[in-house]
Every structure is written in structure tokens, then in C-alpha cells.
Amino acid sequence: MQLKNYLLVAGTGLLILSCSQKSVENKLEDKVSSQSKVSDSKELQGEVKDLIDDSHLQAQQKTQLRTLQANTDAQLQNFREESLKLRAVLIKDVLSTKKYDRSEVLLIQRKMENIEKQRLALIFKVIDQANKIMGRETDSEESERIMNHAIFTHDSVGHDNFTHDNY
Predict the structure, then answer these.
(1) If 0-12 CB within 10 Å is exposed, 13-18 middle and 19+ buried, where does residue 65 land?
(2) With CB atoms 3.0 to 4.6 Å apart as the test, which of 19, 23, 68, 136 could cross-link to 131 if both were Cys?
(3) pLDDT tens figures, 38-50
(4) Partners of 160 in the beta sheet?
């Protein structure tokens, strides 16, 4: 019975989330369309620096965010360089007069996909770190807290929700 109640609550939450997702999507589209064009990473780095400098954060928080930005920029540059090297090898291989090596192209593809996954993982890890510096709870921490609360709390009659009887 507890599992059924949990699934009902989770399903209702997902329905509400999907309805609110459209408004979030619309807000994001508005923000992206009003964002001035950013031509390269150096321009974006300057914009981030200005935002940090102009914020009302404490000096220590600004310093931590600048350090985080510098470290992140260096790591992202490494990802860009590695990706460019792989693309250069790919172009040379495709345009060479030698026999086309499909297995090597697939390997390059996997390596480039892996670099992109690492790059995105880094970006979202840094977002969590920046939120912590600014004193905000991160989504991953909030999700973990909610799950722990749902799993390890008692129901209204005092039964433990986390027992083998519920499964």
C-alpha cells in the first residue's frame, strides 16, 4: 500500500512538473532570444567576470567564484583543444588518398562524444559549486534530501516506510 501511495504522489509531482516545464521552457526561450550574441569563449569569460564584479556578493564569495571560473575556463580549453585535434585527424583521414578506415573514424567519434560528455558534466558540476559558494542548495542536494525524507520517514501510524513489507 505504501508503494502505491508513493507512486501516486510521484505521478502527481511529475504531472505538475510537466505542466510547469512548458512555462520554464517559454521563459528560457525568451532569455535566449534576448541574450546578446556571444561570439567566443573570451567574450563569455568577460561577461561572467563583469557579472561577478557587479554582484552584491561578499568579497570572499567573489574571489571563490573567480577562482572557480579560472579553473573551469582552463579545463574547458583543454576539452576544446583535444576536440580540435581529433577533428583535425578526422579531416585528414577522410581527405587522404589512403584507404578509408571506418573503425578509426568510429573511435574518433566515441572519443569526441566522451569529451563532450565530460565538458557538459564539468559545466553542471561547476553550477552546483557556484550555487554552494553563493549559499544556495543545489538540485542534486535537494533531490537527495527529498528522497531520504520519503524513504526514511514514518507514516501517520508510525510504521517505517522502508521495510521489506512494502515491496
Answers:
(1) buried
(2) 136
(3) 777 788 888 888 8
(4) 154
Retrieve residue 163's grid coordinates: 521495510
Q: Which three cell numbers stand for residue 147?
A: 528522497
Grid cell 516545464 in the structure block, residue = 21
C-alpha cell of 12? 502527481
Rounded CA gap, 14 and 8, in Å? 10
Domain edges within the chain? 1-33, 40-154+160-164
Residues 6+ apart with CB under 8 A from 83: 112, 115, 116
- Distance between CA 128 and CA 136 in Å, rounded? 9
Would you place residue 28 in the very low, low, confident or very high pLDDT band (cuts 50, 70, 90)?
confident
Q: Rounded to 10 degrees, what is the CA torsion of 113, 119, 124, 126?
A: 160
Q: Say if pTM beats, i.e. exceeds, 0.70.
A: no
